[in-house]
Amino acid sequence: MKIRIGILGLGGVGGYFGGLLAKAYFDSDAIEIIFIARGETQKAIAQNGLKIISDTNQVIVFPNLVSTNPEEIGQLDYLICATKTYDIESSFASMKSCIVQNTIILPLYNGVDATERIQTLFPENMVLQGCAYIVSMIVSPGVIRKLGHFEKLFFGSKTASISKLNALQIILINAGIESYLSESIEETVWEKFIFISPLASATSYLNQNIGTILNNPVNKAIYISLLNEITAVAFAKGLALPKDIIAQTIVKLEKSPQDATSSMHRDLLANRKTEVASLTEYVVNEGIKYGVATSTYQMILEKLLK
């Protein structure tokens, strides 16, 4: 029997990493890659494949199946999910029959509460923790644009057996994915959250890209304030993060494409629903819970909710 891997959410993250898996295992006798997509995305991929455009080249890949029909998809051994955080519950409800007791779920979301939310829906399943560093976005249905050369995937679990984690790591590595099995995955996910949450909040609030924020002292001060607040929340939660996490995060941002922005800012500009609840409001609520002041986050949240 083939190992069956479903990719739920074919945006910048799911589309890129799912594309690498589809490219590597299209002719495999052991692994089958299923893209879970609907509407124009499903039609575009079925007809023309998934196109991934990078700074230096482009590739077109075809999964073994692209569908949104649970009966056609069947039971899955792995489900890698990378939808928007506000779609977690609804997207999993539509896939319920494909998730059996042995299905291992790997969430790759921008927020930090996805594993807990999914585990509530599927208490008997192994739900890992994971995150990805990548600058990528949907250009059009079935077309992903990746900027820069920095793309890494981290995952792990405090409860899963090492043999199951290693099996998934081998699948990812053999697909050319720069993947790391983290022994302190909660801290790893929070390090990513400390990178993405202030960036999403600042770019959306200021309506500016990375370079414009970093090169303007007033705007950079707002960004630094957000970094200080979210880091204080993380330490109040007892997370064992590096003491220089703020400096590390600024360096990561300086190495990012300066003309890039956050996915939340792009959604805001396109008048789409945003992930403000997971990326901004969550920090405010955790600050209240742990007695940490988050006045800059609160200021930005009030504007974005309007």
Your description of this structure?
By secondary structure, this protein is an alpha/beta fold. It folds into two domains: about 5-185, 3-Layer(aba) Sandwich (Rossmann fold), CATH 3.40.50; about 185-305, N-(1-d-carboxylethyl)-l-norvaline Dehydrogenase, domain 2 (Orthogonal Bundle). The chain is about 50% helix and about 25% strand. The protein has helices at about 10-25, 40-50, 70-75, 90-95, 115-120, 160-175, 185-205, 210-215, 215-235, 245-255, 265-270, 275-290, 295-305, and strands at about 5-10, 30-35, 50-55, 60, 65, 75-80, 100-105, 125, 130-140, 145-155, 180. The chain has a six-stranded parallel beta sheet with strand order 5-2-1-6-7-8. Strands 3, 4, 9, 10 and 11 form a five-stranded mixed beta sheet that branches. Helix 7 crosses helix 13 (about 295-305). The longest helix is centred in the middle third of the chain and has 22 residues, at about 185-205. The protein starts with a strand and ends with a helix. The mean pLDDT is about 95.
